[in-house]
Amino acid sequence: MRVTHLCLAALWSGLAAAQVPLEQEPRHHLEFANESLRIISPQIPPGDTTLEHLHTHDDASICIHGSEMRNKPHDGEWSKPGMVCPPGQAGLTEYTGKPRSHTVQNLGSGVYHLLLVENLRDTGWQNNEPLHIEGTKLVRENRSFRIYETELNGSSTMTHSHEVATVVVVVSGEAIAGERQLSQPGRWALVPAGEKHQVTAAGSARVVEIEVR
Description:
Jelly Rolls
């Protein structure tokens, strides 16, 4: 009986060791963290497979560069390859209170690149008013995030503020958010709650703003 218990303990220990927190998975690059949010840049090369990793908080994802991907949930089977996400496609997943782990594999020929924002609140998400600016479209929302999309050209300037902390991401072209140059797709700027800022572009650019509620 003791041998059986030891074997079971070793098995559970091995399973726990095989599953890593999201921010410790080597292909998920942690770019920023504070007490309320994390910004992570998953980049999975062609033919590569992630470690099984655990999502514990609601997240918003923006596709920067898509590839043919498949997904394997914990104790599940590999999914069929999904459609390649177009740049700028936004996704919202609610993990807070119902954490889940999975493994992801890139079957395509290009790097799979997302920008991922985690809302670290466990409760008390903010019920702020939506942003209303001409040319800016609300594309997704849930308890933790609102995601807006804007097409800019050389004559476009948005001066505005948000009631909550907001991550500005360039999806195509180049833009400037506040004082930060967003020189290529996937670059981002974090704007504090209530801070008035400008988003401009020298040419054409597509920008996504993620409010962290």
